[in-house]
Every structure is written in C-alpha cells, then in structure tokens.
Amino acid sequence: MKYSAYASPTTDFVSPDSIVRRIWGNGDMVLLVFAGSAAEFALNRAVDWLFFTGKLPNDPMARLFATASYAQKIVFADEHTASAALERIRAVHQSVERRRGQSIPDWAHRDVLYMLIDYSERAHELLARPLSPTERNELYDVFYRVGVALRIPELPASYAEWRIDRDRHLRRDLMCSDGTNELYAAYRRQLGPWRYRLLLHLQWVLVPDHVRHLLRLRSAKWLRPCVQLYPLLIRARLRAVMQRLFVPPQQLSAVRALDANAPPTTRPAGRWIKRGLSLSGARG
User: Fold this and answer.
1) Phi and psi at residue 44, to the nearest 5°
2) Which of these, 183, 64, 149, 51, lies nearest to 115 by C-alpha position?
3) 78: β partners
4) H or E element at residue 63
5) What is the enclosing helix (H) or strand (E) of 34?
6) pLDDT tens across 169-209, in order?
7) What is the tens place of the pLDDT at every residue in 183-192?
8) Which of the residues 9, 71, 178, 276 has the least number of beta carbons within 10 Å of its own beta carbon?
9) Which of 161-170, 251-260, 275-284 is modeled with the greatest confidence?
C-alpha cells in the first residue's frame, strides 16, 4: 500500500473513527508511548541535540508531558490547525539549528517519528489487543502524513517497508553514552526510587529486544500478567487512585490533562479497552 503525501478530503487531520484517535485519546496509552520513547531518546546517537537546549535533561517529565500534549492535540485537530502546528514544530527545529550552526540529521527526525509509530502500536497491544493489518496501515498513514508535513525525507512507502527501515534505524542509530546516563539520572531524580524502578519495568515490557540489551534492563516478565488487571481496575473506578499512586504529585495534573485534551467519546474507560484483551507482550 502506497501512501499519498496529502490527507484525505475530510476537515479532520485524523478520521474520527481512526484507531490513532483511540490510542491518542487514551491518556494511559499516551503515557506508555512516551515511557518507551524515553528509553530510545536516551540511546539515540543524536541525543546531544537534547543537551544543546537543556530543556529535556533539566526537566524531563515536564518536557515529555508537554510534547505528549502537543502531539495529542495535533491528532484531534482539523487539517488546517494540524498543518499550522506542524509548521511551528519545523520553525522551532530550524531556530535550534541556526543557534547551533548545524542541521539536525534527517535520520534523527525519522527516528523520532518511528518511535511514535512503534510505541503507539505497542501501547495498544499491551493495554488492549494487537492491531489488525488494516489498523497498522492506518497508523502508519497518519504518521507518514505528519512526516511529510515536517519535510522528513526518504520515508518508507508502506507499513511493511517501514517495519524493515525501523529495524535498520534501531541497529544503526542507538548506543549507550554519557547522555544516556545523564538522562536516566534525571528520570530517577524526578520520579524517585520506586517510581523510577516501575518505569524501568514498563520499559522492559514495551521496548524492542535491542533497546533492552543496550540499556541492560532487568527482566520484568511478571508485569505482563499484571496488566491483565487493567480493565478490571478501570471498571472498579480505581484509575484516579492508581494515578495518585504511580504519578509524582507535581505531574498529576499534566497526566489528567492528557484525558481532558481528547473528545469525550475517546477518553479511557470506554468499552473498547475491555473487549478482547490479548496480552501477547511487546514484540522483540
């Protein structure tokens, strides 16, 4: 399946019944997307760009939540608003490039886009079920259009081709560095010891085998069956209790805002999460 560089004629950037809206309208899934991405950000060979501005290393949780909120709003925007937002992102990147006197590598832009695609799929699989082939194509189509709007070159033409390129990027662009250690020290500082350990456990479940190996994450197979309780806890109206327990108090409002940003029909606690729970675990 080859994708057009242009969105469909609808006024919405993403179709209202799209699986992408279901994923990005669920605050818990959005958190998982960025829990996995936090691991790869730390390993990326272009991590020095994060240290140039200093914003993510100095306050990683705030930056991750701000990015998650911004990305989520694009998913639920109309085409004009989404295009304007993506153009602003390009302008921010260009401003950083001018200040540093260098260009962000094209492969680094693709790496970030690929993280959002991959961890969107993995988050849905972990909390609900594996995506169907049609849903995978739909997911890729949306982020392909995001990549085109950001002028990212050499994007694969289909989900199947992207899967191959994703693996190539993982093998080529990730490495453990001083930046990796500094970012993880920042995560630990902001989360505290036991929430930090929970992040590491979640990352083991979420990330590809190659990322696990580079980060030397300890096995957390025990966590997979625990996730099967998720729909039951939601039905028991314990989600707010879990958030207060697992989220640092200073970030609680940002977490809850991820649900507030989405239209009511896509917010968590919907029946779609409760149906067909299939916990096969993240792919390697």
Assistant:
1) -65, 140
2) 64
3) 12
4) helix 60-75
5) helix 27-43
6) 999 999 999 999 999 999 999 999 999 999 999 999 999 99
7) 999 999 999 9
8) 9
9) 161-170
Q: Which two tokens stand for residue 18?
A: 């799209």
Residue 201: closest CA among 181, 223, 226, 216: 223
Token pair belonging to 125: 């699989």
pTM of the predicted structure, to 2 decimals: 0.86
Q: Which contacts (CB < 8 Å, 24+ apart) does range 92-95 have? A: none
Are residues 83 and 148 in contact, defined by beta-carbon separation less than 8 angstroms? no
Tokens linked to 5: 């560089």
Spatial separation of the C-alpha atoms in residues 168 and 68, rounded to whole Å? 26
Are the C-beta atoms of residues 20 and 144 closer than 8 Å to each other? no
* 174: DSSP letter: B
Q: In the chain, what are the helix, strand and coil shares in percent, each to the nearest 5?
A: 70, 0, 30
- Distance, in Å, from the CA atom of 284 to the CA atom of 273, rounded to the nearest integer, reads 23
212-236: buried (b, 16+ CB within 10 Å) or exposed (e) per residue?
bebbebeebeeeeeeeeebbeebee
Distance CA 66, CA 63 (A): 5
Question: What residues contact residue 81 under an 8 Å CB cut-off, 6+ apart?
Answer: 13
How far apart are alpha carbons 19 and 130 in whole angstroms?
12
Return the CA Rg of the chain.
Answer: 18
First CA to last CA distance, the chain = 24
Cα–Cα dist 57/42, whole Å:
10
Answer for the pair 204, 32: CB distance below 8 angstroms, yes or no: no
